Amino acid sequence: MYAILSVGYDKGEIGIVTLGDKLAKLRKENNYTQEQLADILDVSRQSVSKWESDLAYPETDKLIKLGELYNCSMDYLLKDGVEMKDGVEKKQRTTVVFDFKNFYFERKSSRTVHGVPLWHINIGWGRTAKGIIAIGFKAKGIISFGLLSLGVLSFGLLSLGLISLGVFALGLIGLGSISAGFIALGAICFGILAIGAVAVGEFSVGALAVGKYFAMGDHAYAMIAIGKTKAVGSVYQANAITKANYAEVISLLKAKVPEILSWLTALIKPLLRTG
To answer: What is the predicted pLDDT for the residue at 81?
Structure first.
């Protein structure tokens, strides 16, 4: 999908526009500093300065990268143009093509931490944002936002991280429509502690709760099961938590749940008291 815009000029043409003029103009239009452009192309700032001053010319691979970065053709970069009186750089007729399929937008911080940009925005199909804060269709960072997101704190359609939030979330703590994690919360979730409409885990709470040690919900299946409509427990089952059976349930949890998971009993105590 694309749109085409044609612009024509007939009079007032003066002066030749050099490669250096074009590179300087394109860089400024795209809001890059010479330092940022040098970092993207893996060259020195002095090299960029020499290109823009026509004291040196970029190597072929750098020209190709510049064309991709600025979304312009090699013909435009290499063929001398003309400059209008008002300083606008045009040939007698210019066609500008906006190709949305190949569209991308990229910006990154000039400040880095151990060589990683403080922030990096890289939006476009097949492109990856990498930074302390990363934003893109694919994003990798300490804090990341993307369709496919990987980070300590991760937000995305498919999200992986220490703390993950997404339609599909996988993490130490996962929150999503479908989530998996040490602690998982979502419509469908899998975890050591799972809380959701359909919850499967060591400890599970949900409309349909399936647990190894404990499950509580409308339908509950576990060693200790508390189910409003149906409860199936191999050790204990009840339709609700009452003052009469609260102490018994807590005692069974302490006896049956391994010491390494005893903290889960403490976590669900408030739910038991209001159950």
So the answer is: 55
